[in-house]
Amino acid sequence: MDDIIFKKVWEDEVMFEVNVLVKTERMNVNQNFYMTEEILNKLCESLSEYSLHHNEEKEIIISHNVSDDYPIVKMKLLPVDEIGNVSIDIHFAYDEHVGYIYYCNSIVETNLSHLSILSEKLKYLLYEDLGYEVYLNSFNS
Which residue, 1, 43, 49, 48, is CA-closest to 25? Predict the structure, then answer.
């Protein structure tokens, strides 16, 4: 089963580090990146907005500019189909000031209700201990 897993791996007073693991039938890929409360809230709001306007494509970029070549995760949520399924075109990349350099992308399948639950569960990354995980399609969190 396709899945996207967010895991809290480090924190200090200002920010925290999250590992994003994308699992599909063909591959597993992960990337660590830094988040702040503001970045996390923006991600959750974007997912919630998509749930309200799910007939439109939505692009979400998760990044924290801490160096010249910082990692990003770009998710393009495609319009929902007639039975509530959603395809997410997800890219892992670095920003090298001249445009994104993509090194991996995949399509992850989910449904609208899982995205809504994810947008709520992600908020707990701020308060939970290291090792806390939030799953898109598996309800382990």
Answer: 1
The Cα 31–Cα 82 span in angstroms is 32
Separation between Cα atoms, residue 63 and residue 74, nearest integer Å: 9
Place of tokens 């969190």: 141
Alpha helices in 59-123 (DSSP H): 112-121
What predicted TM-score, i.e. pTM, was given to this entire model? 0.89
d(CA 79, CA 103): 25
Mean pLDDT, 10 residues at a time, over the chain (141 residues)?
95 93 91 90 96 94 65 90 96 68 85 95 96 89 45
